[in-house]
């Protein structure tokens, strides 16, 4: 399954373009721009599983660094600062990874 089967390709491109510059990434704005906040809980979980590269059921820091590339192959890597900021915002239990919480992903609910 591709990200573009869940989200609109134009929205993804606009969001990636908006955060092209290093240290400009804002997960709340990004999720809003790609239309993820308006999706059903099932669609949010599908996106989560696409981002969970090792299929562990969690998104770890190393996977989070490459999150924009999961939306499009020309997406950039997050900087260490962006990655750590994103992880701190979404890691509710302090275990260093992001999980799915009930009906939706914690990281999207933050948006």
From TrEMBL:
One of its GO terms (cellular component) is cytoplasm. Ca(2+) 1 binds at residues 52, 54, 56, 58, 63. InterPro entries: EF-hand-dom_pair (IPR011992), EF_Hand_1_Ca_BS (IPR018247), EF_hand_dom (IPR002048), Parvalbumin (IPR008080). Ca(2+) 2 binds at residues 91, 93, 95, 97. Keywords: Calcium, Metal-binding, Muscle protein, Repeat. Residues 39-74 form the EF-hand domain. GO terms for molecular function: calcium ion binding. Pfam families: EF-hand_7. This is Parvalbumin.
């Amino acid at each position: 399954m591709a990200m573009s089967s869940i989200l609109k390709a134009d929205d993804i491109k606009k969001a990636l373009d908006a955060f092209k510059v290093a240290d400009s990434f804002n997960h709340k704005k990004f999720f809003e721009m790609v239309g993820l906040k308006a999706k059903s809980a099932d669609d949010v979980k599908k996106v989560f599983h696409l981002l969970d590269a090792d299929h562990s059921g969690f998104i770890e820091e190393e996977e989070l660094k490459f999150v924009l590339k999961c939306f499009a192959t020309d997406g950039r890597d997050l900087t260490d600062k962006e990655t750590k900021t994103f992880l701190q915002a979404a890691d509710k239990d302090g275990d260093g990874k992001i999980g799915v919480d009930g009906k939706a992903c914690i990281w999207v609910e933050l948006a």
